[in-house]
Design a protein that fits this description.
- By secondary structure, this protein is an alpha/beta fold.
- The chain has three helices and four strands; from the N terminus they run E-H-E-H-E-H-E.
- Strands 3-2-1-4 form a four-stranded parallel beta sheet, sandwiched between helices.
- Helix 1 links the parallel strand 1 and strand 2.
- The longest helix is centred in the first third of the chain and has 9 residues.
- The protein is globular and about 40 Å long.
Length: 103
């Protein structure tokens, strides 16, 4: 991949129980040239606050808030915000291996 930027889009709705572990697994990728696009799809729980907390420790995380429109809507919104050469999707309740993205 020659250090191409990889954008990881995470649609999130009420993910306060899982988003922290999800983001930690993504932030711990062995391939570091990533941007993490979290799309808060109108969550009514504390998900947004958790993102802000983790975002303060990793500048690769970008949070976008939108009205609830469902997972497809959140993914499409996330696609419109990426700047990477490649895009992948992770759900807010997923945990990924540190080698999910390889050069």
């Amino acid at each position: 991949m020659n250090n191409n930027l990889v954008s990881i889009v995470i649609p999130m709705y009420n993910g306060e129980k899982t988003i922290k572990k999800c983001l930690k697994s993504i932030c711990n990728q062995t391939y570091i040239n990533i941007e993490i696009i979290v799309v808060n799809d109108g969550s009514t729980d504390l998900s947004e606050n958790i993102i802000y907390e983790i975002q303060s420790m990793d500048s690769r995380i970008k949070l976008f808030n939108k009205e609830n429109g469902g997972q497809s809507s959140a993914r499409n919104f996330g696609i419109s915000k990426v700047s990477g050469d490649y895009i992948c999707f992770v759900d807010c309740d997923d945990y990924v291996d540190s080698n999910m993205i390889l050069e």
